[in-house]
Structures are given as structure tokens and as C-alpha cells.
Amino acid sequence: MKKSKLYISLSLVAITGLLLVAADHIDSPGVSNTGNDITDVYAFQGADTNNLVFVVNTQGLLTPGTTGAATFKENVLTEINIDNNGDNVEDLVIQAIKRGNKMHFFGPVAPGTPGTSSTIKTSNAAGSVEISTYGNAAMTSTSGGMKFFAGPRDDPFFFDLGRFQAILGGSAPGFNNPGTDTFAGTNVLSTVIEVPKSMLGSSSSINVWAETKEKQ
Predict the structure, then answer these.
(1) Judging by beta carbons within 10 Å of its beta carbon (0-12, 13-18, 19+), is residue 36 exposed, middle or buried?
(2) Across all residues in the chain, what is the average pLDDT?
(3) Could you say which of 92, 97, 133, 213 has the lowest number of CB atoms within 10 Å?
(4) What are the beta bridge partners of residue 96?
(5) Are strands 38-45 and 51-62 parallel, antiparallel or unpaired?
(6) Which of 13-27, 78-92, 141-155 is the least confident region?
């Protein structure tokens, strides 16, 4: 089992229901443009209602011109943490890390060490997928009832930043409906895992948060 000391560069929290989202598109210079910058975390019921889908998006605000050169980093681990007993401590993790042109997935499995240090659970490999490239068909794979994707996607987050700034400045009373999508035309790098609910414990609700961790 390979154990690496990893540094958490960014953490986002969501509590799953049918659909819950955490979003953050602008971060400090310490994580921006490093591959560590999480923009969104999504958790929702799959088209197969026996499954849950987890999505972690990174490297936001990619233009069509820069998306082709954007890559996942081999020294950055994406980790989805799952608390299934309500104590806000991860009971299970799903990990993803790039090696060559593939994303490799591990778990769901109990973490080696809860908190800021992570053990890559190489003995609990779940599967891998070829990383999709911009402008080409999406590559997916399945293994053990799980489904995987990694690659560029259109940024799904909708936010009218200009209107928000006007509200803060006192020149607008509220948002328009539907408003202007500030992130229209920009892309993210997405890591997507679909997992049978039976692999996540018997609780009717779970807490979920995602982290990116850089090897030190």
C-alpha cells in the first residue's frame, strides 16, 4: 500500500439530497492555475435510482482556446469524503488520480487516516478511464457497478456576477429572471463517479465534501 503525505489545497462541503451543490470559481493565487482549484461539487441521484453520482469540477473559467491545453495533474489527488453516520468525519472516501492518459479510481473504502493526510488506497482499486480530450467524444468506463468519466465539460454553474455586484453596490434591487450567465462559454475539468447506493452504507442521508490534495 502506497502512503503519501498530501496537502489539502481546497475543501468544499455539500450535504446530499436529490441534488446539492457547492460552488467557488475564484480562489487565492496559492491554488489558482495549479490543478487544485475546485469550482463545484455535485451529488445527485443517477438515472438509475439505485445509484448516486458525484461530480468534482476543477480549473474553472477555461475558455475554448485554453481548454485543450488544460490537464489534470499527476501530483494532485481528488478525494470525495462521505460521512454516513452524521458525525462530520469521513467514513468512506473515493479517490481519483491521474497516471498517464488515464484517471484511476479507488474506493469507496474507509480512509487510512481521516483529516488532512491521505493514504492512496491502491489495494481498493475501483477502475480507470481514459481521460477525454476537448472536442472529442466523451470516454466512459464501468467496473463493479461503478461508472467513471474524467475530462473537460461545459461549466454548468449559472451565476449573474454583474447583477450581484450591482446589488452589493446598491444600484440594483435584486436579480433578474433568468439573468445573465457570467460563466457561459467557459469550461471546467470534471471528475465523475457513479456509485451504487449499497456501497455507501445504509443511512438514508449522507454528508459529502471534496478535496484536492497535492503530494509534498
Answers:
(1) buried
(2) 86
(3) 133
(4) 78, 105
(5) antiparallel
(6) 13-27
How far apart (Å, rounded) are the C-alpha atoms in residues 15 and 85? Answer: 12
Q: Could you read off the pLDDT of 120-175 as tens digits, one per residue?
A: 999 999 999 999 999 999 999 999 999 999 999 999 989 899 999 999 999 999 99
The tens digit of pLDDT for each residue in 102-115 reads 999 999 999 977 77
pLDDT at 17: 41
The candidate with the shortest Cα–Cα distance to 198, out of 42, 88, 48, is 48
CB distance 106 to 124 below 8 Å: yes
**Taking a C-beta distance cutoff of 8 angstroms, is the pair 70, 59 a contact?**
yes
**The three three-digit cell numbers of residue 88, written as one number:** 462530520
pTM as predicted: 0.85
Spatial distance between the Cα atoms of 87 and 89, rounded to a whole number of angstroms: 5
Distances (CA, A) of 189 to 73, 147, 151, 165, 206: 11, 17, 5, 27, 25
Q: What DSSP letter does each residue of 1-13 carry, written as one string?
A: --B--EEEEEEEE
Q: Report the chain's C-alpha Rg in angstroms.
A: 17
Residue 69: which residues within 8 A CB-CB, separation 6 or more? Answer: none
